[in-house]
Amino acid sequence: VSDINAAIAFALAASIIADLQGRAGYPAAAEVTAMAIDPLLEGTEDDPARAIITVYAARAHAAGGSDTIALAMVRDGFALADTLEKADLTLLLVVAQAEAGDVAGALDNVDRRVDGLRRMVALAVIARTQAEAGDIAGAMKTGALIAEDDISRIQAHIDIALAVGAGDDAAETAIGLASEAADRSGSSIDF
């Protein structure tokens, strides 16, 4: 692809398709879709574009179950993000790292590299990722790291409840915590 914007759009679309394929139980198809992004990295000299495509490729490989490839791409992406000083890129890389199964590394990178609102968003996504992987206790612990009055805390606990499923005690606890966070944030969300 000769146009940088077209390359980024293709990588984004392919990463979304790979995510949907992985969630639907077709990791091999997700990996094939992820591999369609890889050649874009070889042909991209523009560092910001390369960094963005790296994020999308890493997320697609994680959806396909190729965590080793995804984590290697995350490391490359962090090197580019540090050079470019791009906070939004760092946030996306932390998310890709968690999705590739390296939750401890993602949490460490949140502590070292992400601040403010981006930190709250990153923690909420990591909590969701943990819950979807079945680590409910870890998800609840990560959710507790989000500021009590931040709307990301509401989202984290709703995502945990959805991952657990209705009728489970952990889901009820998560909904209760989401409700408390809504009250603290002044949100008009009613549970």
Helix content: over 70%
The unreliable regions are: none
Q: What is the succession of H and E elements?
A: HHHHHHHHHH
Q: How far apart are the termini?
A: 48 Å
Proportion in β-strands? under 5%
Shape type:
globular
Strand tally:
0
Word description of this protein:
This protein has 191 residues and is an all-alpha fold. The protein has helices at residues 4-23, 27-42, 47-63, 67-84, 87-99, 103-113, 116-132, 136-144, 151-164, 169-185.
List keywords for this structure.
0% strand, 191 residues, mainly alpha, 10 helices, 80% helix
List the helices and strands and how they pair.
Blueprint: H1 4-23, H2 27-42, H3 47-63, H4 67-84, H5 87-99, H6 103-113, H7 116-132, H8 136-144, H9 151-164, H10 169-185
Helix pairs in contact: 1-2, 1-3, 2-3, 3-4, 3-5, 4-5, 5-6, 5-7, 6-7, 7-8, 7-9, 8-9, 9-10
Outline of the structure:
The chain is mainly alpha-helical. Helices cover 80% and strands 0% of the residues. The protein has helices at 4-23, 27-42, 47-63, 67-84, 87-99, 103-113, 116-132, 136-144, 151-164, 169-185.
